[in-house]
Specification:
It is built from 17 helices and 16 strands. Helices cover 42% and strands 19% of the residues.
């Protein structure tokens, strides 16, 4: 099953790629995406072979106990720390396993990938180590930090298109034109086998695992993990986890129309269409695919940081998000989930942490009004706050818009406190001291 991409439009090209049926040809060279009927099957043996190839080239990441997260979710939780890989995500496993099996001719001509994130960095990094030229096509809107990072890892970055589909179509055309081998992020048996070593290592380290929760984007990671883990323990239950706006596999499993799109903190799994090859595995091996909302993803990111001191990107945190949102399903069970990546934007991470502190009452915004004229009464306010073991971290003086009368003085403060009860105590003491104080929501 093969056809050239020459002359087909962008939509057909993308549909064929996702189905796994594109074969890119040049005289004397073949660089291709496997078709189902001519590819090696994704088997436990293929994953074992991948594990042997990865030794010494991709980190065997630790599986750690969930600590306070176990108590919070009512489970015996274990976290597989794929955020500790050199490029910060699990994608290295599949990229390396695919590229190390290429022929000499394929290596000499080089590889190409389309990605704006972890797959781009994984391909660039391991291609450089293997001495393979790599081209990474990224959307024009890709953040500069990701572009710089991919280039620093050895990738020849080309910016093309306003969205991923544009980059993907261009990468396929360039692959055929220049004789490059396309490295698919999830619809390739060797990539799936590489990703499946995550599940294999989890079961080797914690063979009594009862539940495996795995993020789902294109479906390759969970296809490999389910194949490896269920071979280890057929009674194990494997659940996928998707973000609410990109719940394509959940919709497919429940025979619903597939509707995706919108913003999400879990951009690493924001995939419109799962791969045909992963889907053929996942529909047989998964118990179900759970859906998590943005609030629980945000909460999972901050809980992983505050209780485990680990940095997780949105896609990497959805397994924990599922426990926070659907925890009753797994009470008392031994659960494992991979923290698939830690490549979160630093500014976004800071915003999420501060936002969580507001929710927990560790930061609070209060307004304090004095009706005793326009004298400098801030030292008196600060004294009351300090006496109650709180601390002012930001102050704004507003004598015009928020004061009750021309003789009043208003202050907007952000204070650091222990919890919500502590905030209410501070506000109460300020009012008792003769100020008009209230907490702003």
């Amino acid at each position: 099953m093969a056809f050239s991409t020459t002359g087909i439009n962008r939509r057909d090209c993308i549909r064929a790629l996702l189905a796994g049926t594109v074969v890119l040809t040049m005289p004397g060279l073949v660089g291709r995406v496997f078709a189902e009927n001519d590819s090696p099957r994704v088997t436990p043996k293929l994953i074992q072979e991948a594990a042997q190839r990865l030794q010494g080239h991709v980190q065997r990441t630790p599986l750690v106990a969930g600590g306070m997260l176990s108590k919070r979710t009512g489970t015996d939780l274990y976290l597989k720390l794929e955020n500790m890989q050199y490029t910060g995500a699990f994608k290295e496993r599949g990229a390396y396993n695919k590229m190390v099996t290429l022929s000499r001719a394929e290596r000499e001509h080089g590889v190409i990938a389309a990605s704006s994130g972890n797959h781009a960095q994984a391909v660039a990094y391991h291609a450089k180590l293997l001495g393979i030229p790599s081209v990474i096509v990224m959307p024009e809107v890709t953040p500069h930090t990701k572009i710089r990072r991919t280039r620093s890892l050895g990738g020849d970055v080309i910016l093309h298109g306003k969205e991923f589909d544009d980059s993907l179509a261009f990468a396929l055309q360039k692959a055929e034109k220049d004789g490059l081998t396309f490295i698919h992020p999830f619809n390739d048996p060797l990539v799936i086998a590489g990703q499946g070593t995550v599940g294999l290592e989890i079961m080797q380290d914690q063979p009594e695992t009862e539940i495996l929760l795995v993020p789902v984007g294109g479906g390759g990671l969970i296809a490999g993990c389910a194949t490896a883990a269920k071979n280890f323990n057929p009674k194990l239950k494997v659940y996928g986890v998707e973000a609410d706006n990109y719940a394509a596999m959940h919709q497919m499993m429940h025979h619903e129309p597939v509707r995706t799109g919108g913003e999400t903190l879990a951009e690493g799994i924001a995939v419109h269409t799962p791969g045909k090859l992963p889907w053929s595995i996942d529909e047989r091996l998964l118990e179900d695919v759970l859906v998590v909302d943005e609030e629980h993803i945000a909460h999972a990111i901050t809980r992983i940081w505050s209780e485990q001191k680990l940095v997780a990107e949105g896609a990497g945190a959805v397994g924990v998000a599922a426990l926070l949102q659907h925890g009753g399903m797994f009470s008392g069970k031994k659960v494992a989930t991979p923290i698939t990546g830690g490549n979160i934007d630093a500014r976004l991470f800071a915003v999420l942490l501060e936002r969580d502190m507001f929710h927990q009452g560790q930061l609070a915004q209060i307004r304090v009004v004095s009706h005793n004229g326009h004298g400098d009464i801030y030292p008196e306010i600060a004294k009351v706050i300090a006496q109650n073991r709180a601390e002012v971290v930001n102050l704004e003086y507003d004598p015009i818009f928020h004061a009750a009368s021309p003789m009043s003085t208003a202050y907007e403060l952000i204070i650091e406190t222990r919890d919500n009860k502590h905030v209410e105590s501070v506000v109460k003491k300020l009012n008792a001291a003769g100020f008009e104080a209230k907490r702003m929501q």
